Amino acid sequence: MNKITIHGGTRLAGTIKASGAKNAVLPILAATLVGQGESHISHVPHLHDVTTMNQLLAQMGAQLTVDHHSDIYINPDSITDPVAPYETVKTMRASILALGPLVARFGQAKVSLPGGCQIGSRPVDLHIKGLKAMGAEIEVIDGYIHARTKNALGNRLQGNRIVMDKVTVTGTENILIAACLAQGETLIENAAIEPEVVDLAKYLSAMGANIEGIGTSKIYVQGKDSLNGTHHAVMPDRIEIGTFLVAAAMTQGDITITNTSNEDLDAVLDKLTEAGAQIELGENQISLKMNQRPNPVDIYTAPHPAFPTDMQAQFCALNAVADGTSIITENLFENRFMHVEELKRMGADINVEGNRAIIKGVDHLSGAPVTATDLRASASLVIAGLAAQGDTDVHDIHYIDRGYEAIEEKLNQLGAKIIRS
Ligand code: EPZ
User: Fold this and answer.
1) What predicted TM-score, i.e. pTM, was given to this entire model?
2) CA triple 148-144-207, angle to 5 deg
């Protein structure tokens, strides 16, 4: 069951519902560690990465149950083993998000270095630098980050002013969570302002954290002695929504996605409009209609609110059949064009020069056997297969299950013809 076959040439039409955001639920699950008592996390997407995070927290000793709606009930008070082992971290880099909360709450943590992944080296030096600035004693030994608090006050980190050298989403999240239990005030400057960071901050505030500047690059936190578990409903997944909108644009379809939050996708919606799509925003829903071959659109990825790198691969597919030439510039990750060689097997005319892809639109793509290399690359291959003439087999499709809930069910609900085998 690691391959899907897509019968190309079908227009997507109809309505689907957006799932909860992968990149919000993962830091929120890590943040449950700093709350005393039970947290209830709802609107959780059923994803492999969520299952991995649940397993990680349970093996540390947290009490965790998942109900039939995929809601998660978790109580970290019984944790006895603040360790994130290599076997888990290597399958999901977001495990690094346990580092800050474990040190802040339990005074110690042993977390495997995530290592690189297909899209880049993915360093975590800024996570470590920030926690050290808060008084954590950190050593890297045998591939593990060993962290503990050292101050005379016992297991307390100390608030501090932390200027992030680069905008890092999970780096900001790790330090933000830790600061909520630190002694005194923390100021995080050059913080990431992605909507997922905002959703995390809303959950922390509901736990009793004192955070100001949410959604800005300057976040002030007044540390508390303790926080309490509480309920939080995860925000909709803007990247899943963007992915389905590109799929509809590519097949000259007409779809509506419900349960959306429309303010998180301006840069993507602007580019879809530039490509020729007609977009209508409703109450928590987005509709897209496309009646033409896409116009070519230049893309330049950058931190929020600019164009998100997680939508870059999908727009490579859209531009591959555009009526002209476009340039996509990837500024965040050093190896995020792995999908290009696979798209070229389908007839795309793309030339990668450093961090730029020059794309000459072709009339149509042709179905072919292709192989997924990472989460968003696999999404771009699925989108290309929907529009291609003939059948496309996407191998190693397990990557897509990390970040898209029931993707073939949702696409088939819109008229696609996809079979997993
Ligand atoms: C988060 O990754 C997302 N993952 C990624 O989504 C997303 O692509 C990325 O942010 C950028 O938006 C989750 O939220 C779980 P970064 P993260 O730290 O936090 C450099 C997907 O497809 N950097 O914001 O790991 C880094 O090399 C995934 O859903 C350092 O140099 O990304 C990169 O160039 C892929 N040192 C830049 O910052 C550090 O300590 C941005 O990376 C940390 C990061």
Assistant:
1) 0.97
2) 50
